[in-house]
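Now for today's protein.

===
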Amino acid sequence: MIWNRTGGSDDGPLLVLLHGLGGTAELWRGVETELPGVWAGGWMAVDLPGHGRSSVASSYTFDAQAALVAEALPPGRDLVLMGHSMGGMVALALAGAHLGVRRVIGFSIKTWWPPAHVEGMREQSRKPARIFATRDEAVERYLLASGLRGLTDPAAPEHAAGVVEVDGGWRIAQDMGTFDFGVPDMPALLAEVSCPVTLALGSEDKLVRAANYEGLGAEVVTFDGLGHNPHVEDPAALVALL
């Protein structure tokens, strides 16, 4: 099951919001606040497989995640996909397989993955999730895993989606298997996409640089002064791309 939250109009294009590794649909709250009066269609924010309130999956490759998200989409709607980091890769995989996708906006996508980085992620996927004695400790771990530490108030109620109570304490809701999503291949994913693609990044992003997007054949937009999470830092900048 893919958990989702919808808003806006039942007519017109549907904007599908796909978070990054470790996150939840709650990271799009700021963007959703900006959409009324700007976006004429509807929108859907999802918890990707193995994250937040969605079910775990047997595979977390980009294609596998895209297929599960596709099952949650209403039939017959034109789609615009907006994906952050890993969610941007899922968006490209979905666009390559779904005829209804009219545009993809992917941002903060790490395109360079040395074999050692890939193996490190796979090793992480094999480790059990750490159990914390208190909910506050688990929230802190969730903020670290999702890249939100220092960007949001740990006491904010939307962080509840990122943690879960278990026997013996609390843990992040994220399935550790999500760290094994395979070897990212941007050129291969883009080759399957027939709609326009915009790639964006923050000028202060420590994981992604403009040079990483060179030669991919997509429009590139830079957000001055923003880091790896521009949808949290400045939601209006993301909405302006629409």
